[in-house]
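Rotation project, supervised by the postdoc (A.L.). Task for the rotation student: set up a whole-complex structure prediction and record inputs and outputs verbatim in this book. Inputs entered:
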Amino acid sequence: MRRLFWTAVAILGAVLVETALGYLVSGPGRYLDPFLLVVVYCGLSGGEGQGMLAGVAAGWVQDLLFGGPILGLSALAKLLVGFVVGAAGSHFLISGASARVLILLLAAVADALLVQWLASVFGIEASPMSPVTLASRATLTAVAGGALYTMIDRQLQRSER
Amino acid sequence: MAAVVDARRNRILLVLLVVLHFAAISHQVDGGGGVSLLQRGLFTLLSPLQRGMGATVYGFRELWDGYGFHRETYRENRRLEERVRYLEALLQERSHLAREAERLRDILGLREILPLRTQVATVISRDGVPWFRSLTIDRGTTSGVTLNAPVMSSTGVVGRVIAVGPHAARVQVLLDRDSGAGVLVERTRATGVVSGQVVQPEAGANDLILKYVPERAEIANGDVVVTSGVDGIYPKGLVVGRVSYVGKGSALFHEVRVQPSARFDRLEEVLVVLREEEDLETPEVVQ
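Outputs recorded:
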């Protein structure tokens, strides 16, 4: 229950970050995906079940508030990313900052490619993303996520003491 | 043992969720168009938060800009620091007010000129995902905004409403590659359809593409392009932009690009064209 509450808070935080970025830069979705940070964190800390459920929830909120005319694309992509990250998290020890940054990087790339692939499967018109944009978005998301996760870990350690 | 059961349960759940999402997306693609209850509820719940966040960010940005400016002034002239700070702050406030007044005057001027019932709305969020070009405005069904309502800025057509809640609505801008509007060239009356381009938006190509202009039609750079009204969404005669490129396309049609009049990256206030009562009862939905 507590985890569910914090996941909801994190998704709400992602909504606010995405909204705030919209006021600062044009096309914030091209630079950072705050929803993915929530999904990957839930996957790494809670396993595949929590990863995919967080992916569904975050993806739907992203689709509803920031997506195009067809709902569910980001949700489906994040569901799959959450599951895979959760499975990786429960089979391998991914606790170091660099390992998590790498996972975030791969997750961001996978998420973007999945959305584009799903759009083409369903015949939905979606603007393509250049390799440069894809790489910079994944890098920025990974770096921001790495820093954020480190801060959360420190906070959790402090509260445990 | 418990871990194996958990893993199996998760896999079953994954398959179920994937199937469910495929079904949901397929349903929208096949028939789609309306607004779901979930979407309406989330708009109602979260749009005030988004608006609040926007106001906070504006506040912090102004604070930050002010801090930078004050520090620079202090270095330049210590003696006149207080005086300059006061005057600059005043000037900043006045110019901000003047810009705001100018924007509102433009919008109100357009509102008076247009022979249509309109509603002024503020843009509260834009371009949340890179694949679609959309923005969110702070007016919804309670203000008379309906699905497919045309949205304008003081300089030109912005797009159409694709989802609407009680207090907010999402607008698909003309730059979205899935958008479309029936237009004609004002000078020669040549008709066509404008939509977003299929090229990378980050490459600076924020022009619209004008399709289906016959090879024999007369068209030149600088020609004004206005809506033709044939699509059933945009009223006739609204300015869309100016022709920025005319090239040889296929055997039948010109290849034409249009620089939009609306400045999509700087939109703050827009006008939503409201439907008449009889239209509200039987809204015409055009995909």
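Student's summary: The mean pLDDT of chain A is 88.
Supervisor addendum: Chain A has one domain: 2-15+28-156.
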